[in-house]
Write the structure tokens for this entry.
Amino acid sequence: GAVVSQHPSRVICKSGTSVKIECRSLDFQATTMFWYRQFPKQSLMLMATSNEGSKATYEQGVEKDKFLINHASLTLSTLTVTSAHPEDSSFYICSANTGGYGCTFGSGTRLTVV
Amino acid sequence: QKEVEQNSGPLSVPEGAIASLNCTYSDRGSQSFFWYRQYSGKSPELIMFIYSNGDKEDGRFTAQLNKASQYVSLLIRDSQPSDSATYLCAVEPYGGATNKLIFGTGTLLAVQP
């Protein structure tokens, strides 16, 4: 089946630094990937749609200059949280379009900004 | 605003009982419907998808879709404590980007031993 690998699984960083999260489709090509954020006991919130070879589409209220998305190949999308602050601490999850049967999610990245 | 609504729960059922999870959606043109299970601290995993009206069965799980009433449900037979998780309903709206899913807030299911 379709597998999406996400790294790192956990990261702790200092306030003001940047963090990069990688999302890879291991056995299929993903022209579209999605980035979600989930705060404790809340639902998934779609942040942006990442399209291979073009600019990402951000959801309303998501700062594109703070959450940089790069989808340079058919198997890799990255999310960089720039100048992270404690309020950015959250569970970030990517998913990839598998071509017909929903999306497959990565294992998620728990970001803690101290 | 295209919305997907679920009762947040918790829904508590005894072990061995049938758990019934419900979801309604606002976009009448929605094409595809998915149920995901999310354990605490983990990412969602796909349980079932359904495209056509009626029932679809897979093991202990049955998805039911009624497009006229705009609801989709998930039945879990012979519920087990390991089924305790949050169940997310997701809908792919008509005209949306492929597989850009709209998620409900999820229903927390607690299966009591």
About this structure: Chain B has a mean pLDDT of 92.
